[in-house]
Amino acid sequence: MKIPFLNKKKSKNLDLEEDPVFLALDIGTEYVKSVIYKVENDTANVIGYSRIPQHSKAMEGAMVINIDNVVSTCDIGIGRALVVADKVLGSKCPLPDYVTLGIAGEIVKGVCIVANYEREDPEMQITDEEIQEVVKNIKDQAFSDSVEDIAEEIGINSKKIKEINSHINSTYIDGIKVDNPIGFTGEEVTYRVYSTFAPSLHVNSLYEVAKRLELKVLTIDVQPYAISKSYKGAHKSDFSSIFIDIGGGTTDIAIVQDGGIVGTKMIAFGGRVFTRRLAKDMNLELEKAEKMKLDYSNKKLQGTTEKKIKKILEDDSRLWAEGIEISLAEFEEVEEFPAEILISGGGSELPEMYDALISYPWLTVLPFGKFPNVKHMYPKQIANINDETGLMHTTHDVVPAALTSISIKPAKDLLLNK
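Request: output the structure for the sequence above.
Response:
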């Protein structure tokens, strides 16, 4: 059943007396997930949600390769989320005007820049204007070198690299970590600013998708950053963990140490690799191979078929774990890795992925203080989300929940300025 969002009469809901709604879109290689939500205080109340299959020729390695196909799938997905919202509200849901988009892919790169400075007047309270000035100075002084390094790494002209977003991910005032520096006084301030970049083509394709859906972009955020930043308690100084999100086209990695994000990595190895392997080895069409993979994950297969699939997936899962090791080794600044690995995404439901992580010889290949504890994570562990639909409950739904959570502040800022 198609419920086209674009065929609905558009309304400028920010001008209405009723509370406006916002949209978060996780445009994945295998699925498009649409979240309709309202922002109240510091909470996102989710009133609409949908998860629908992506067009088979729309994405590759988390990158848009066919805008028309992506727009068509998003259109249907948003429409279905709005139908859910109508039922939750008991009335017609206003249409969203602003969207938060997730971005991923092997060519999305992040850098962490540490800025130390002494304030001229330690007794004056820190303001948002002062913070923005610091971020601007960091960009002016450090971005050109970062962009050159990234351009060289991925092999394109630096002029074709575009900033996605920059966040202050941790702040220390006179040696003490604070969650939000605004209103504090102090002399010596240290900001850890995390900035992400990607080829302009990759970023602009998302803006084009939003434009064709007649939506304005509220923010674009790198998905592993969104997960690690919005995880409950991740900002605390005693929190450290490795986040691994296994999507259809990529596996996204983020490391948090002592409440601050060290960095993110993405590898072009996701659930679609396993689908293609099953299709090849069992002589199946991709759609049938995907269904068989999902049935296997949900323990619906038995006997010879189950054993055959297990054997096929075990070989590739070991290769995948080796890719995780290589990516982690690139975090040269990490002296000792966190003793916890949190996994999410549809691919994490394959038992072989979990088994590959818990059987890998981490202690002999990387500086782990002790063997890491591997756990699945779920949307309920994402901060400041109230899911009124009851539909966001699997590991599949972690990324859209995280994108919703991380968009609360820009949504509040937008509402305050209206």
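The chain has a mean pLDDT of 90.
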